[in-house]
Every structure is written in C-alpha cells, then in structure tokens.
Amino acid sequence: MHLANESSRDHPDFKRRNFLLSSAGLSVVAISLIPATKLYAASSIYTNFLSDKAVGGYDPVAYFTENKPVKGDTDFSTEYMGALWLFSSQNNLEAFKADPHKYAPQYGGYCAYAIATGTTAKGDPKQWEIVDDKLYLNINSSIRKRWSDNKEKYIPDADTNWPGILK
Description:
Blueprint: H1 12-33, H2 36-39, H3 62-65, E1 73-80, E2 83-87, H4 90-98, H5 100-103, H6 112-116, E3 124-131, E4 134-138, H7 141-149, H8 151-161
Antiparallel strand pairs: 1-2, 3-4
C-alpha cells in the first residue's frame, strides 16, 4: 500500500523499475566499451564497426606510390575480403585488383604491434611503415615508434600469431 506521505522514490515498484533501467543502461555502456572485434566474429580485415571501409578509407596503393596516406574516393572502390577498399585514382584501383596481396596492409590492417604481442587493436592509417615491400599499420605514434625500433622481433612474432589471434 502506498501511503500519501511516502515518497514515490521509496515505493518498491519505483525502485525495481529504476534498477532495471539502470541495469539496462549499464549493459549498453559496457557493450559500447568492448572492442568491435570482441563483439562480433572478427574479420581478417579490420574495419570500424560503423563502416566497412578497409584502411579507414585510405588508398593502400598510395603508400607505395606516393609514400604517404591518401584518402580514397568512393568513385574508385572495390570489395575484397568482405571490406570496401577505396582508392584515389583508377590506376591505383587497377593496381590493387591485379595484386591485392601486395598492397593490403599486413594483419588485415590491425595494429602490427598488437598482433605481435598477442592481442588486437585498430590500425591507424596515419601510423604506417613499409618494410620489405609490405605495409604495416599501428594504433598510434608511440606504438609505431616502439614497433619500428624492434620490428625485426615483432614482425616474426606477429606472423606467428596471425590469423589465429582472431579466433
């Protein structure tokens, strides 16, 4: 029985409803903090869960031809391994189609350092390096420096971990 002087916040139905709503809210927050690769079956190509673009929409061929990251254009695109790949020119699109393995980043565009250390993290298209004609991405500039300073160790470690780490 609800008494007139009893605060509605003290009523058991109000408390139960608030508990359920706050629990649901916490679940949404907790789920949003889990990396997309842990929520969904991980793809061998890293894409943001809000987009299906590989390499964050950057042209993977441009790293080799222009020695810098260049944003791709939807006018020059192809699908490869379940992701959308964008290019800055028709020539780069054709080069990729002729040999995607040559231009696609190692470890599907995941952070090379993370893969080497037994975990996953996104690869940032602006944190990159080409080693032995292969493109590697890292999550940020400090990790890229750490990886670059000891890449002779990290590359074989990542090669061993890839792609089994996604399972």
